[in-house]
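Fold this sequence, please.
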Amino acid sequence: MSERYPWHAPSWQRLQQSRQRRHHALLLKGKAGTGKLDFAVTLAQSLLCHKPVADGYACGQCASCGWFEQNSHPDYRLLTPEQETPDENTSSKKPARKSTQISVAQVRELGGFLELSSHQNEGLRVVVIHPADALNQTSANALLKMLEEPPPGVMFILVTSHPQRLLATIISRCQQVEMPAPSTEQALSWLAQQQLADAEQWLAYTGGSPLQAREAASAGGMQALPTRLAQGQKLDPFQAASEFAALGMEEVMTALQKWIYDLLAVRLEVQPRYHLRQQVALQALGKSVDLSALLTFQRQVDDARRSATHPLNHELQLETLMLQYSKLFPG
């Protein structure tokens, strides 16, 4: 069963009040790392449940809930980016990488599903699309046709943290639901229930997203990255690049962007935003860093982040970046 989060309670109540006059397509939008997908899946299960309880949640006991919990409900589909498989003609031992897009083939496969009748009397079919901004131009246009002429008894639930990336015509076909982010107090209270150590530090590091804070704290390798970067001129670029490459290019570039942001902040005598525990180290580095060179390096990191999903030699790229980073701090 998907998790429920206290900061979603008002949104859930509003949707339950309009349950009898529901729209054929919802667009759940809000900050990343706040549980929007869990909310969408919980809503889908409740809509398919035979006997939802008083607050609108699924009963968890009926045959429909049983199918749902076993990921075999015939009236439910979840569209997410496909898993890419390695090229069989290469000797690469690298694991399959997850695509960043929802393909047009995936959307077109919905056609057969939408043509079927519900497996339940007077039932509903539900499609959850996450993240909706992973639709490319072709797959978005294919979905738009379905939204323009929705089959009876079908509900679409689109989930996104980047609504600006969606086609305006798709947005116009949906009822938009603003999903609230938790207050700092709510997030810290929830993280305390998860028994997360240094919750305040991780919440700051993830920009106030409690689910991302929990995930980041469990990714042990990422915790070593600020320690390495705090070495400044003494950093071994080649050893650091080797360690960082194993963590994943996208994750490392995002972490490096946050470190540079905070280094710029302390250089300009502003409080760091993401690295609360490394404030002393950042201030020490900020005293010697060349501001002009740091701004240039920031642009290089931003460029590297945009190309992080490309099949480049990431370790070589990281070696170059780490070598440039160590040179930001004159002896």
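Strands lie at 25-29, 76-79, 125-129, 154-160, 175-178. Residues 84-96 have pLDDT under 50 and may be disordered.
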